[in-house]
Amino acid sequence: MPSASTFVQEKKSVVDDGKEEWRSYLVPEKLEVLRQLEPWVEDHVLPLLKTVEASWQPSDLLPDPAALGADGFHAACLELRAAAAGVPDELLVCLVANMVTEEALPTYPSVLNRLEVVRDATGADDTAWARWIRGWSAEENRHGDVLNRYMHLSGRFDMREVERTVQHLIRDGMSMHEPASPFHVFVYVAFQERATAIAHGNTARLVGARGAGDAALARICGTVASDEKRHEAAYTRLMGKLFEADPDAAVRAMAYMMQRRIDMPTAFINDGRHSGGDFYARFIAIAEKAGTYTLSDYRCILEHLLRQWCVEDLKVGLSGDGRRAQDYLCAPPHKIKRIEEKTHDRMIRTHKKPTLIPISWIFDRPISVNLP
Ligand SMILES: [Fe+2]
Ligand SMILES: [Fe+2]
């Protein structure tokens, strides 16, 4: 999910700039580390997937017309719509962004299938890596489905506009700075799975019984968030193993990624009413205001991952570049905190007038938001 647009990127690179840096991860010795990890992935990562039999399905969380019959289904839909009626517009917009992010799923396994060693070369490979990619995608596939169906039944969204957004986004894809290096992509995905868990979890809290009063929607978002937590555990564990196997490569890859900022995979999202990247920046401001994903969440994720991977304590096996990457990584959380404080102070001092942004997904009703 989103990162904070106000997180200023460092001008000077702490690692060699550009393609040369991530291409150095594709030499045979580096790829051998990944190859040798396969039995470990079998034993420690694959068990984090649930079997199909043990998995929830979207039908478990929504009214079932076959089981309820016409009258029962109608009554259940009226109940769902009554609860959804209390959810404020800004949370509806965040919910669409959550759903669209999930619905762009075809893009994500294609990212993993570009990775050396890890990729599922035939589409039905039997390696632990390939089974992980397919099993993870299969779990993810339910997330967009359940949110989409809830939204359709709730009657609160212009579904045609939402569907157009999904189609545009899958056509536009997503850009990665390091398309074939597992070290870089696993840093990104570990960060992103935690961000997604936080965004769905915050949405659940805000729309739920103690917030907007839609308990059914809160249950849906909470169920999705708990899947994301398992996925986060898998990628964090995997990257932790790479930190053990090759700390210098891992710390440099992490610095490279953080330096370029971890944007949500749907940075090209657009509701069709705004030009280019404009909409992403606006959406970030809406999510910040609504509280579904904030600059402070971004900082906390970074701090959490630095702790998980013991980045500050790395001592053995670091090159000069590796030590510089370590120093860089241990400083940004403080910088982000300062930006948070400054933004907060500025808002209080200037009383900046909010901007009204009409959003097609909710029939062009405007959202009032403070743009940076
Ligand atoms: Fe998901
Ligand atoms: Fe996920």
From TrEMBL:
<feature type="binding site">
    <location>
        <position position="102"/>
    </location>
    <ligand>
        <name>Fe cation 1</name>
    </ligand>
</feature>
<feature type="binding site">
    <location>
        <position position="231"/>
    </location>
    <ligand>
        <name>Fe cation 2</name>
    </ligand>
</feature>
<keyword id="KW-0809">Transit peptide</keyword>
<keyword id="KW-0275">Fatty acid biosynthesis</keyword>
<dbReference type="GO" id="GO:0009570">
    <property type="term" value="C:chloroplast stroma"/>
</dbReference>
<feature type="binding site">
    <location>
        <position position="228"/>
    </location>
    <ligand>
        <name>Fe cation 1</name>
    </ligand>
</feature>
<dbReference type="InterPro" id="IPR009078">
    <property type="entry name" value="Ferritin-like_SF"/>
</dbReference>
<keyword id="KW-0150">Chloroplast</keyword>
<comment type="pathway">
    <text>Lipid metabolism; fatty acid metabolism.</text>
</comment>
<keyword id="KW-0560">Oxidoreductase</keyword>
<protein>
    <submittedName>
        <fullName>Uncharacterized protein</fullName>
    </submittedName>
</protein>
<keyword id="KW-0444">Lipid biosynthesis</keyword>
<feature type="binding site">
    <location>
        <position position="228"/>
    </location>
    <ligand>
        <name>Fe cation 2</name>
    </ligand>
</feature>
<feature type="binding site">
    <location>
        <position position="140"/>
    </location>
    <ligand>
        <name>Fe cation 1</name>
    </ligand>
</feature>
<dbReference type="Pfam" id="PF03405">
    <property type="entry name" value="FA_desaturase_2"/>
</dbReference>
<keyword id="KW-0408">Iron</keyword>
<dbReference type="GO" id="GO:0006633">
    <property type="term" value="P:fatty acid biosynthetic process"/>
</dbReference>
<keyword id="KW-0479">Metal-binding</keyword>
<keyword id="KW-0276">Fatty acid metabolism</keyword>
<keyword id="KW-0934">Plastid</keyword>
<dbReference type="GO" id="GO:0045300">
    <property type="term" value="F:stearoyl-[ACP] desaturase activity"/>
</dbReference>
<dbReference type="InterPro" id="IPR012348">
    <property type="entry name" value="RNR-like"/>
</dbReference>
<comment type="subunit">
    <text>Homodimer.</text>
</comment>
<feature type="binding site">
    <location>
        <position position="143"/>
    </location>
    <ligand>
        <name>Fe cation 1</name>
    </ligand>
</feature>
<dbReference type="InterPro" id="IPR005067">
    <property type="entry name" value="Fatty_acid_desaturase-2"/>
</dbReference>
<keyword id="KW-0443">Lipid metabolism</keyword>
<feature type="binding site">
    <location>
        <position position="140"/>
    </location>
    <ligand>
        <name>Fe cation 2</name>
    </ligand>
</feature>
<comment type="similarity">
    <text>Belongs to the fatty acid desaturase type 2 family.</text>
</comment>
<dbReference type="GO" id="GO:0046872">
    <property type="term" value="F:metal ion binding"/>
</dbReference>
<feature type="binding site">
    <location>
        <position position="193"/>
    </location>
    <ligand>
        <name>Fe cation 2</name>
    </ligand>
</feature>
